[in-house]
Amino acid sequence: MCSNSKIRNRGRRLIGYLWIVLLFTGGAAAQPVTADQMKEILAAGVPLDPEDARSIADGKIVAKLLPAKARGEVSVFGIVRVNAPLKDISKGFGKTMSRQKNKTALRWGDLSYPPEADDFRRITLSGGEIEDLKKCVIGRCKLKLSASMIERFEAEIDWTSTSHKKEAAALYRRALFEYVTEYLRKGDGGLIRYHDQRTPVDLSLEIPPIYDRFFWIRESAPKFHQYLKKFPNHELPNVKNAINWSTVKIGLKPVILFTHVITYDGRQTDFSQILIVSKQIYSNHYFDTSIGFTALATFPAADGKFDSYVIYMNHSRSGSLGGGFGKFIRKIVEDEALDKLEQLLTETKENAEIHVPNEREALAAEKNVPNGGIAQYYVSLTVLGVAVLILIIWLAFRRSNR
């Protein structure tokens, strides 16, 4: 059995690997609220005590674990006040994350919207994963697939052929292309139903209830909140959609992730808010789902400073977390996740505040940024985020059959 120090060190190494999942997202603007209303919304949505309120006002980091609503779920919340305009905050976060990207991602890319089959050509499986596909049956498979996908590999691949590896990889890419296309056509109703284990996990049932836990979006941007719930059958100006994929290295096993990023972008003279929602729609190992939001809100301040905030929330689920894992391991997971979130928000704040122009200058500069321009800096803020890091650490401590 590993010593406590070895477990901690292993967890810290793995949490570094998964910074890459923070690298694929976009930005957005919402309906105006006042700074006082923001405090009321936060108080109603998160268990903040008076000390937390003082810390937020003083520009200190507040990071909290939230109550789980399902087995295998870990949820996290963070906020920091920043004396900088949105443009500088976005640049600051990009600088924070750029040092991590090349260390953690094996491959990544953006899909066309709508996707094209050629977008998937760089997605590959290892030789071991090809062999795992060969053994897959419904209810017992080391890759996360739907029942229909598993049946296709059984029916369409001649596993005795010398070309079976190439054919299996091509079928895997084709199946993912068809799945993502179907999801974008149907919305949440087209989400995958994983059947790699005896008990299926249906993302079309797992994800929609989480939208109502996005208290900040629900209260400050109700039209955007409705857009999320009704996608793709609801129109809203200033919304952009993107599908990103990445292959990240976790221990000995690479993980392929697909993320739907929905951004709602808009700026006003007196109030600006950028909203970011990122939804994991597929993972070939470990994760059932991960969905969350990041919000940037800037309020006018009488002293010419910037009353800006970075708000972050994520809910992640994994069937591997549904078992009886010990309190000691859970404590390590929670401590490491909160520590990483605090580091992320601290570095963002420091980088954003390096150069703070006066408010009038900053607002004038932001008017010259094309619509969606600020969003481009947010390639570091995917909402698979810190809660996914929590899952990774725990999963490193147990043998997984997936």
Characteristics:
single chain; about 400 residues; alpha+beta; eight-stranded antiparallel sheet; 10 strands; elongated; disordered C terminus
Overall description:
40% of the residues lie in helices and 21% in strands. The chain is built from 14 helices and 10 strands. The protein has helices spanning 4-17, 35-45, 50-57, 86-104, 127-134, 147-156, 164-186, 203-206, 208-211, 215-220, 222-230, 327-352, 359-367, 385-395; strands at 62-66, 73-82, 105-110, 193-194, 201-202, 239-250, 253-264, 272-283, 289-300, 306-317. Strands 1-2-10-9-8-7-6-3 form an 8-stranded antiparallel β-sheet, sandwiched between helices. The protein has a two-stranded antiparallel sheet with strand order 4-5. A hairpin with a 6-residue loop joins strand 1 and strand 2. It is elongated, with a radius of gyration of 21 Å.
In DSSP terms, counting alpha (H) and pi (I) runs of 4 or more, how many helices? 14
Arrangement of strands in the largest sheet: 1-2-10-9-8-7-6-3
Kindly, what is the distance between the CA atoms of the first and last residues, rounded to a whole number of angstroms? Answer: 22 Å
Order of helices and strands: HHHEEHEHHHEEHHHHEEEEEHHH
Structure class = alpha+beta
Q: Tell me the strand percentage band.
A: 15-25%
What's the average pLDDT? Answer: 78
Q: Percent range for helical residues?
A: 40-55%
- Regarding quaternary structure, how should these chains be classified? single chain
Radius of gyration, taken over Cα atoms and rounded to an integer in Å: 21 Å
Low-confidence stretches: 10-31, 365-402
Largest sheet: 8 strands, antiparallel
State the shape.
Answer: elongated
Number of strands: 10
